[in-house]
Design brief:
The chain has about 190 residues and is of the alpha/beta class. Helix content is about 30%, strand content about 30%. It has one domain: 3-Layer(aba) Sandwich (Rossmann fold), CATH 3.40.50.
């Protein structure tokens, strides 16, 4: 997960995969970006470790903990909760961006303190991937409702207010697509 900020903002970037981590650090050094802290970890509901399936073929940013993959290449990664990773960074969080290939429910289950101090969340909603991680897409929507976030669909660069029911209906409309996802921007009400 990474977000953009001007030089007065702080960015915390969490990346578990060693090669992407190396490239991230190189990019930070090349651009002399002093406001970015990099944490080498995956995120989940509890502390531990997991085998990350590497997508070597066409998208090195699409590594995943999904259970439906039969990877030829994996790497063991550390898993921490967002709450434990961000505890040393107090204060309000303007934006939390998540793109973790279906493992979002688990990440959010370990983020109660983080969500309580977050104003906005940008997330890929890919029900097919969430199911492949052993979770129900409605769990993700329920977590955001618990913390009083309102969902907005990101469509052609614009925010369109929607409901959780609308997102469940989208799930069924997208089911036949190879990459059935939508981007959602959650705003705390």
């Amino acid at each position: 997960m990474s977000v953009c900020a001007d030089v007065s903002g702080r960015v915390i970037s969490i990346e578990p995969e060693p090669e992407n981590l190396r490239l991230l650090k190189k990019n930070i050094d090349t651009n002399n970006a002093h406001n970015i802290t990099v944490i080498a970890s995956g995120v989940g509901a509890s502390e531990g470790s997991a085998e990350l399936a590497l997508n070597d073929q066409w998208n090195p940013g699409m590594h995943s903990l999904r259970k439906d993959l039969n990877p030829t290449n994996t790497v063991k990664i550390k898993i921490s909760t967002l709450d434990s990773l961000l505890k040393d960074f107090p204060g309000e969080i303007d934006l939390l961006k998540m793109d973790i290939e279906g493992f979002e429910v688990d990440a959010l289950m370990g983020a109660s303190e983080t969500l309580a101090r977050t104003k906005n969340v940008m997330i890929e909603f890919t029900p097919k991937f969430i199911r492949a991680c052993g979770r129900d897409p409605e769990q993700l929507l329920s977590i955001f409702e618990t913390y009083n976030f309102l969902p907005y669909l990101i469509n052609d660069g614009k925010l369109e207010m929607c409901t959780s029911k609308f997102l469940i209906d989208i799930d069924q409309k997208l089911a036949h697509k190879e990459n059935p996802q939508v981007d959602i921007f959650y705003i705390r009400s």
